[in-house]
């Protein structure tokens, strides 16, 4: 394992298609040593080079935290995306060397829960995989409720059923097996925790159902698919400290545009969740399109802060403090 | 590096503990200025020089004796100096791995670690330990993982759990603690366990330091220094044993302060732990009496000024109200009022 | 001189209806009954989802049982001592479901020991409110003999566990639900700090 600029060099040991859309990549250290340990729910940022620069996509680690001889990530092919996942699917081969960042956990398990309930949709199951490996060691009870579209999308779920038995329940859309979240969260013992990872509608349904049963926010955890970067309309931004004005193209995030122009902004998740890249807005003539999960509603309304990793602007002038 | 160990020192009763000149010179002197006040003195824990800041976790000539003193204290009062909440087991394994890997890479002549999957083989030639165990399975070790490894480590160790945007004391081994009770502090949140520290909340530093630490990432440790004074080279100065050591405070005079009064320097290299997401606060203590300090004239001059000007509330909190004047008077012989040498001390 | 000038103490809430709850447990002791009654006034629609737990143990002698009996609630459970109330609370929480809200009102010792139970069942700050009532008599933990003393009002007092003269430090542990006390004349036997009434 070599560390340069805080990144790890890993070799792609294996690539498997687990569904028509998802490929699983097994990554090992280039020197055969152990990779850094991590906790269930962690992700790694993969640096994916392309013609005009580098995509930095975060993927959940799905392997066991207690086996650091290899990492596994699942990459879903996003046709309408910016190309990072397409490159992973089409241009990366077994034996290739990739650069990744050390694991970061923005979706950790509660250590005090008396029962863990997981709700997942499709590729949202990936962070849960590593969390279950951790829970098995800890011996805390859990249930997984996983919704998939059809038989060919069920392979990750079937692996979990083989591993954990009745604790994992699969719902197949093609068989009209509906996952009713309001039933899952009803009459659960005090000290239960709910984890949701899936599409926006599923997250909202889970939050609403849990609230209706009297759950409080401290027991509800969710991770949106971190759609890395952001797409939208072009805009320009001035970085106050250097005075540079840079153009953010439609398929770039502000963070990526700044990096491409040689400016560094601190970041961790690149998905609007962790707060690391929070930046003050010094001047604004127009409006900010906030798409992060970090800033409070008041902060968003005030337009005095922006998360450059995901949020954009519709404006004639934007000056930020970096 | 080769260390001349002093394996038969005592930290109690006859107090045969003493520093070699080399050990004095390598200590992390904690006073950057003539006046002391809390500051955000957190810096990246990167290897610096050949002294106490070289290794990830420093060991020195007192290693063997200090481990023996810890064992004595633990045996004397079971359940008092090592406590862990049940949900801290992952963090315990994290800590065991971090200490073993750090010691083995910094001191390969004394420690080795071989991993075969989860089957680990650990040797510690300084304490004649050669154990094979299963990582993750507590039943394969003679103690819980944290107690097992910290019985072989210098300094106190506290594991803090991150929850609800703050840090809680989840586990600790503390046989060298400065007048606090581990059992009492367990379960306290960041602002609670700092509650007794005077003048701290007012500075706003507590909030800023917490925010900084919550961002601490694996592989990017930070360190800070803290200090206090104590009478005699005694490690076990817990709140519980107060009646055993507090009377010593009355024995200090301006004549004997050089021998009796010890500067306790605490080096704290903080690490985020990978599986548990906990943060470990090691408190690695260096004991130097004022005579040791005076072997470096710049240090003695600096320390004279620090103690003389120190805010009375801090003096009370650190527990040397009764002998501050005696220590200042003893140190005054090294302070000619000139400034040129003092710069070197920082 | 020993450390006495330390400032720290739990910060309490004021009881008010917590949003979203589908079952409410309102537990109080002695003069804490007043806050219970005020809370019930503020949540008239939830009476049938509300269970009251009241202990008549009181340092000040105040008793609100008669008024509490007038309220329309699902159940009122009465206990002769705080300890019995907390033991029953433990049983109730063990069978409780998500959606439960807990309200505590009474002495610091009562709230602290009830919170030990609530924390055990992983109830968080968005599910529990605590309102202090009555005087700030303290529950004290002796660091030397590991014993607890209830209703301490003096800075310096004799430990019933080990007979040492102790000085109370203004430092509170939620895990032990108590303040800490250490030997008062540890430096010079017989040389005690000045007697002082605690800020009760």
From TrEMBL, chain C:
Keyword terms: 2Fe-2S, Flavoprotein, Iron, Iron-sulfur, Metal-binding, Oxidoreductase
Source domain of life: Bacteria
GO MF annotation, one: oxidoreductase activity
Keyword NAD: no
Dimethylamine monooxygenase subunit DmmA-like N-terminal domain location: 5-128
Residue ranges of every copy of the Dimethylamine monooxygenase subunit DmmA-like C-terminal domain listed in the record: 139-182
Coiled coil: none
Annotated InterPro entries: DmmA-like_C (IPR048037), DmmA-like_N (IPR054582), FNR_nucleotide-bd (IPR039261)
Listed NCBIfam families: mono_DmmA_fam (NF041259)
Protein name: Uncharacterized protein
């Amino acid at each position: 394992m070599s560390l340069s600029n805080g990144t790890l060099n890993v070799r792609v040991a294996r690539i498997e298609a687990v569904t028509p859309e998802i490929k699983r990549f097994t990554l090992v250290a280039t020197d055969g040593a152990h990779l850094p340990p991590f906790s269930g729910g962690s992700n790694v940022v993969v640096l994916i080079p392309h013609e005009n620069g580098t995509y930095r996509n975060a993927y959940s680690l799905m392997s066991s935290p207690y086996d650091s001889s290899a990492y596994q990530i699942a990459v879903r092919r996003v046709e309408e995306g910016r190309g990072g996942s397409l490159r992973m699917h089409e241009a990366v081969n077994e034996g290739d060397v990739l650069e990744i960042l050390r694991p970061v956990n923005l979706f950790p398990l509660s250590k005090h829960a008396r029962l863990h309930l997981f709700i997942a949709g499709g590729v949202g199951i990936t962070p849960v995989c590593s969390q279950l490996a951790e829970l098995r060691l800890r011996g805390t009870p859990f249930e997984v409720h996983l919704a998939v579209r059809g038989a060919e999308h069920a392979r990750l779920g079937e692996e979990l059923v083989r591993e954990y038995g009745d604790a994992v329940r699969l719902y197949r859309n093609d068989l009209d097996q509906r996952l009713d979240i309001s039933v899952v969260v009803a009459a659960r013992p005090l000290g239960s925790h709910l984890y949701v990872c899936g599409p926006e509608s599923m997250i909202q349904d889970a939050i609403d159902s849990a609230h209706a049963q009297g759950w409080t926010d401290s027991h509800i955890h969710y991770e949106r698919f971190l759609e890395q970067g952001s797409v939208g309309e072009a805009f320009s931004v001035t970085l106050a400290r250097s005075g540079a004005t840079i153009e953010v193209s439609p398929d770039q995030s502000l963070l990526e545009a700044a990096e491409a122009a040689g400016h560094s902004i601190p970041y961790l998740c690149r998905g609007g969740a962790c707060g690391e890249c929070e930046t003050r807005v010094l001047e604004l003539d127009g409006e900010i399109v906030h798409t992060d999960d970090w800033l409070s509603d008041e902060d968003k309304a005030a337009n005095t802060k922006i998360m450059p990793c995901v949020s954009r602007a519709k404006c004639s002038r934007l000056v930020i403090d970096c | 590096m080769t260390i001349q160990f002093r394996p038969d020192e005592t930290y109690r009763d006859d107090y045969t503990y003493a520093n070699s000149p080399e050990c004095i010179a390598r200590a992390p002197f904690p006073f950057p200025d003539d006046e002391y006040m809390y500051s955000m003195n957190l810096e990246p824990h990167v290897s610096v020089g050949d002294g106490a800041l070289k290794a990830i976790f420093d060991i020195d000539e007192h290693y063997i004796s200090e481990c023996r003193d810890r064992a004595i204290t633990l045996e004397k009062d079971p359940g008092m100096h090592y406590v862990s909440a049940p949900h801290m087991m992952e963090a315990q394994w994290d800590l065991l791995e971090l200490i073993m890997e750090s010691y083995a890479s910094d001191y390969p002549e004394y420690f080795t670690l071989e991993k075969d999957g989860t089957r680990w083989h650990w040797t510690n030639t300084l304490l004649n330990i050669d154990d094979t165990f299963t990582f993750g399975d507590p039943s394969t070790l003679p103690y819980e993982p944290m107690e097992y490894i910290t019985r072989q480590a210098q300094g106190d160790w506290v594991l803090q759990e991150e929850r609800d945007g703050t840090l809680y004391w989840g586990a600790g081994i503390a046989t060298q603690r400065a007048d606090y009770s581990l059992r009492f502090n367990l379960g306290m949140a960041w602002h609670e366990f700092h509650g007794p520290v005077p003048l701290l909340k007012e500075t706003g530093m507590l909030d800023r330091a917490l925010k900084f630490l919550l961002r601490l990432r694996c592989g990017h440790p930070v360190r800070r220094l803290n200090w206090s004074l104590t009478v005699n080279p005694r490690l076990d100065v817990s709140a519980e044993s107060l009646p055993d050591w507090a009377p010593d405070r009355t024995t200090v005079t301006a004549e004997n302060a050089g021998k009796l009064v010890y500067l306790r320097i605490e080096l704290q290299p903080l690490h985020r732990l990978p599986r548990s997401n906990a943060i470990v606060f090691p408190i690695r203590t260096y004991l130097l009496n004022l005579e040791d300090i005076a072997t470096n004239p710049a240090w003695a001059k600096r320390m004279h000024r620090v103690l003389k000007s120190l805010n009375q509330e801090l003096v009370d909190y650190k527990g040397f109200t009764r002998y501050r004047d005696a220590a200042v008077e003893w140190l005054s012989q090294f302070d000619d009022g000139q400034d040129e040498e003092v710069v070197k001390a920082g | 001189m020993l450390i006495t000038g330390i400032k720290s103490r739990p910060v309490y809430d004021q009881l008010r209806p917590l949003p979203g709850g589908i079952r409410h447990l309102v537990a109080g002791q002695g003069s804490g009954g007043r806050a219970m009654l005020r809370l019930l006034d503020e949540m008239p629609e939830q009476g049938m989802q509300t269970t009251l737990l009241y202990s008549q143990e009181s340092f000040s002698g105040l008793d609100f049982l008669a008024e509490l009996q007038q309220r329309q609630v699902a159940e009122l459970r009465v206990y002769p001592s705080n300890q019995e109330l907390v033991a029953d609370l433990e049983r109730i929480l063990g069978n409780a479901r998500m959606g439960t809200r807990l309200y505590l009102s009474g002495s610091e010792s009562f709230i602290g020991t009830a919170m030990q139970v609530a924390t055990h069942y992983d109830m968080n700050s968005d599910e529990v409110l605590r309102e202090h009532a009555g005087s700030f008599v303290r529950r004290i933990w002796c660091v030397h003999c590991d014993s607890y003393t209830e209703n301490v009002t003096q800075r310096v007092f004799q430990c019933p566990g080990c007979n040492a003269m102790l000085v109370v430090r203004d430092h509170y542990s939620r895990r032990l639900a108590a303040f800490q006390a250490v030997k008062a004349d540890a430096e010079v036997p017989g040389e005690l700090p000045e007697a002082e009434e605690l800020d009760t």
